[in-house]
Specification:
single chain; 489 residues; alpha/beta; Rossmann fold; Isoleucyl-tRNA Synthetase, Domain 1; 3 domains; binds zinc ion
Amino acid sequence: MSQDILLYNSLTRKKELFQPLHPPFIGIYVCGPTVYGPPHLGHARPYVVFDVVIRYFEHCGFKVRYVRNITDVGHLEGDCDEGEDKILKRARMEQVEPMEVVQRYTREFHAAMDSLNVRSPSIEPLASGHIIEQIEMIKKIMSAGLAYETNGSVYFDVPGYAKNHSYGKLSGRVLDELLTYTRELEGKEEKRNAVDFALWKKADQRHLMRWPSPWGDGFPGWHLECSVMSSKYLGEPFDIHGGGIDLQFPHHECEIAQSVAASGKEPVRCWMHNNLITINGRKMAKSLNNFITIEQLFTGTHPLLKRSYSPMTIRFFILQAHYRSTLDFSNEALEAAEKGLQKIMASVKNLLLLKAGAATSSDVKSLRKKCYDALNDDFNSAVVIAHLFEAARISNAAYAGHETVSAEDLEELKSVMNLFTFDILGLKDENFAQGGKSVEQLMEIIITIRNRARKNKDFATSDAVRDELKKINIQLKDEKDGTTRWEMG
Ligand code: ZN
């Protein structure tokens, strides 16, 4: 099924008709987390947004290779070339090995993504697993005369690169201004210019994560891993590079410069950036004490939270805004999202119980096209949700007897709701999640019916119930006191 999808390209600053380089294949790279602490709200947005992008591309018949890395080395505090490695700092605080930090927070990140129903990427490479490739890329940039070594570290020569290439074309930064506003270098520093960035850093004695290189023991600069791993798994150029807008500069700008310097090729066809999350109108920052982890949202344990919110409430809330708008978290906004989600889920259930009647008074037939049009217009999930609310309104009105729905329209409503709510927006009905309250109630009904059959010596029915449940991994246990328990697995 083909659709014409318009995508906003941060590089050209306009919406463009998306055309894959090698249809039906699409290569997408999204910068993954630096695993030095529990995943927080800032992690939820990009990965939910790109999960929907990928679900939609796949629905349209494309074969997507989605690469999302794990940064386990080289990300220094302040996101520049100074300060301690974020992972090493945490390892020192917790008195564990750096790789223990990496493993622990990678597991926490995966668990958070699972609860948000974010599917796994096709490939999830680690920066530390690609040190050889990173060294090779540095050598290429040095041979092109665009990097220099000082005292065991290697830096990218930004002014040298800018003589023949545009540095700042993605982020809109102007090199002359950067040179004016960045602080003067003191004589003892290794960089020739403050705007130059590290490709390789010399490891001092205390630095545990280190590898041998032609320039001595050290570790790669943060920007390098993404250039190396995206081109390794997706080729050069590839279709879409995504990430939060805070990564546009310097991270993504540096990625472009590195790739162009090493291979002469523009690495990415289309850059997609999601906007940031604010909390009560303010930027999320540790110093403002509004840094909320995903776990805290689910448990309601952060002081700013009035109560807990379910994973699907968070997912729905994120998708209720277009990905290029800022998104403000507040208790009121989350409560409204929860109500909205419940309304849609209730209408899905009502549709199952609804009986078809006379002709529908509302316009059902255009809903599907309107949802497609919204997604084709730069993945506007906010507008899709507005149309799902209209579908929910029709369903609920018909259920309450205020409106009628024809048989044909009823099928269409069910199909549109299922496709866009569950398959493409990736929402789940949490009432029917494992261990949810409704499952308990359902099981109670099933067990009562089975036990009634046994009492009547209708063993064919009672055995069939038990066997069918077993097929979906539910075990019934008959206790001595005549009661029946059930458990998963
Ligand atoms: Zn990256």
